[in-house]
Amino acid sequence: MHPAASIIVFTTLSGLGYGLAAMLGLGLLDPAAIATKIAHVLALALISAGLLSSTLHLGNPQRAWRAFSQWRSSWLSREGVLAVAGLPVLTFNAAASIFRDAYVPAMGVLAVLFCIVTVCCTAMIYASLRSVQAWNTRLTPACFLAFSLSGGALLALLFSGVPATWPALATVVMLALAWGLKWSWWGRLDSLKALSTPESATGLGDIGRVRLFERPHMNGNYLTREMGYSVARKHAWKLRIIALLAGGVAPAALVLLSLAVGGWPVIALTGLACASHLLGVLTERWLFFAEARHAVMNYYGA
Amino acid sequence: MTSLPSVAPPKKLGLVIDLDVCVGCHACVVSCKEWNTGGYGAALSDQEPYGKDVSGTFLNRIHTFEVVPEGGQVVGEAGDARIVHFPKSCLHCDDAPCVTVCPTGASYKRQADGIVLVDEDKCIGCGLCAWACPYGAREMDLAAGVMKKCTLCVDRIYNETLKEVDRVPSCVRTCPANARHFGDFADPQSNVSIMVAARGGIDLMPEQGTRPVNKYLPPRPRKPLADIAPLAEHSDGAKGFFAWLDGVLDRI
Predict the structure, then answer these.
(1) Which sign does the torsion angle of CA A65, A66, A69, A75 carry?
(2) Separation CA A260–CA A5 (nearest Å)
(3) ipTM score
(4) Is the CB of residue B218 less than 8 Å from the CB of residue A207?
(5) In the beta sheet, which residues pair with residue B18?
(6) How many Cα neighbours within 13 Å face the side chain of A287?
(7) Per-10-residue mean pLDDT for chain B, 252 residues long?
(8) Residues B61, A216: C-beta atoms closer than 8 Å
(9) CA closest to B203 among chain A residues
(10) I need a labelling partner for B165 at 20 to 30 A (CA). Which of A229, A234, B76, B203 fits?
(11) To the nearest whole angstrom, how far is the Cα of B151 from the nearest Cα of chain A?
(12) Contacts of residue B50 in chain A, CB cutoff 8 Å?
């Protein structure tokens, strides 16, 4: 699948935003602290930036409102509905913290639910497609959710200011869980036996082995541009390692280091951990698309 | 609504494509593009039509495959490998995944005859339906920003201003080899149902669970090359007149 920048940015940023909003919803941060107020604004900004970015790849973005109508059947519609429905809740929590220095537990828990379900809907858009076998697994929403929450936990750590032992350790555990899930997602991908083959795609398998002899047109088309992307396996492996190091190992090490160091350098170390995690998740998300093979490629000899 | 029809449509209109007959002339590709660029919905645009990197929107494309039987010889042009021309357009699936993923309700399957269509006024051009389709039946029109697909020439088949003979999809009407047939698969006595039963019509990618309506007729079997070798390398095993002739020719 073609790794479109708008979708990679959307899923990564909105995932982080929802993760942070979930942590804020749990009431883990002091609502009166100035850092918490900034965190609320950042969460809303990340979510909004992600949503706006997702409209960039639309052919007719002026009709995007129509996407709220088909929540009965479409995961994309469900995601849109939940994103918009959750926004007032998140805004309420942000306003409560910013203007009243308050945390409202009921609204906080509601926000957490919205965050989790919205991220799962985003992931299900991909996981529900049988035509893309790499994505068509429960591990896909598990990974999206784990990345969202571990990224949110890292950001919450950054905005909590005071170094505390148990939230830092919990964040490291969440990072380990997220990358553990991703590692098994990759393991599944590597061991996949293709569901569809050129033989089943053409129905000619009863006669023999099928190979594309001539493409339908001289040049590429929408299908080959949108779904024909492939990444060299050797590079994919290097990128997986880079994603794991930047997104998992480095942030965990920096957080643990910050515990050892203590004091104000903690902010710098946690900030670095967040930046590194973002880089890692962006790499992971790029691979998520680039490594996925679409069934239509059976007709294009790729 | 992008939910599929709750009861099976009374008619299941679709195509039978005969892979034994198709000669790969691309006449259906041209005729489809010509009809549909001026008919239902937005025109089928081309990008850089006179430039170096020409491409465009098509609802029907012909791929050509080489099929080599197990253990078959591949000897230049005379091998056991055979070339199969493979026209591909929307299969109007019963369980169309392109319909259920649509967030706007633009993509739908008609209750009356099972045709899968796009309401272009509702389409936001997100492209998710094209991702959901394993067959590559949908292509985004880059000029209009809406998804285009085969309409089964819905503006021909019910069009009473056309002569009755023309009330079939453009690709079917134009095919000079008669490789494409249009009909109702819900009727077991229809031309297409009889053809499918007689020739063992098949579904493409049944493992994708889409239950396509369109059926493909597989190429008729061929004799292995060894059985019909036109010029033998050796004369061992010759009998009767040929044994005598073999001997005479050897002695000359």
Answers:
(1) negative
(2) 38
(3) 0.93
(4) yes
(5) B217
(6) 24
(7) 80 97 96 92 94 94 91 63 94 96 96 95 96 97 96 96 96 97 97 97 97 96 70 73 88 88
(8) yes
(9) A203
(10) B203
(11) 18
(12) none
